[in-house]
Amino acid sequence: MSGVQEPLEIKFRLFDGSDIGPKKYAPATSVATLKENIIAQWPKGKENGPRTVNDLKLINAGKILENNGTLADCRSPMYDLSGVTTMHVVVRPPSSERGTEKKALSKQKQNRCGCVIL
Q1: Helices (DSSP H) in the chain: which residue ranges?
Q2: Which member of 22, 23, 24, 62 has the lowest number of beta carbons within 10 Å of its beta carbon?
C-alpha cells in the first residue's frame, strides 16, 4: 500500500431517501467542509433545509461525525472503500422550534398532579 491515499467517493442520503452526489473527496477533507458542500448542493424545493453547518449531523457506519474530524479519521478498515460510501444526513430543527418544544415539555411537567388517593 502506498502513502498516497485515493479520494473517497461519497453520496449523502437525505431524510426523505433522496441523495446528493456521489462526489469524490480527498481523505484530508474535514467533516465541516462536507457539511458546507451539502448546504451548497441542498435541493431548492425541500422545506426545512439547513442554514448552517451546525444544523446538520452526518452519520457514517452508525457514528455521528464531528466537525473537526476528517474523512481519513472516520475510515474503517472493515469496509471496502472501492465503492461509493453512503453517509446519512440529519437536519436539526431550527432553534426557534427547539425552544418551543422545551417550553412545552416544562409546562407538561408543571401540570402534573401529585395526588395520591388511599
Answers
A1: 31-41, 95-110
A2: 62
What is the rounded distance in angstroms from the CA atom of residue 111 to the CA atom of residue 73? 47
What is residue 65's three-state secondary structure?
coil
The 8-class DSSP code of residue 55 comes to G
Give the CA-trace dihedral at 35, 37, 42, 48, to 10 degrees: 30
Say whether 2 sits in a helix, a strand or coil. coil
- Determine the Cα–Cα distance for residues 32 and 97; give it in Å rounded to an integer: 24
With contact defined as beta carbons under 8 Å apart, do 20 and 36 qualify? Answer: no
pTM: 0.70
